[in-house]
Amino acid sequence: MATRLSSLLSPERIILSLQSTKRTAALQETAKLLEADPNVANFQGFYNELLARERLDTTCLGNEVALPHARTEHVKKIVLAVGRSTQGVLFENSNQNVKLMFVLGTPKNNPTDYLILVGALCRLIKDESSRTALLAAPTPEAFIATVLDLESKILGPAK
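Below the sequence we write its predicted structure tokens.
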């Protein structure tokens, strides 16, 4: 059961300088990091559901953070990719500028872990100092180390 963000992160699934400033392009740029993930059974199907979910309602959490996600049969296990933008990506449907995007895919049959992860993410990014640390991480490895540090402060040490 992967209920910590850090357990889902890997350097090749993190892009710290998104080139796109438009929502759909930035979403694709970040989601594409999951294309080769062995837990993504059908990337195009997953990506289409991600876009469909995004059209339903904004996935902005506020504070320059968005959580585009899909509960889908196109992933075998929970997958996560991170996109960071220094200039920000405009999410027109909420009129918010997003600098941190967490793209999440979860199997339809696993709502519990999904809800635990979303709750953990919300606690992680709630404080401005936490968001600042994530925005300042110079490398994907440093980003993961920052997440680990924040999780241990918020959730306690990993078991």
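The chain has one domain: 5-155.
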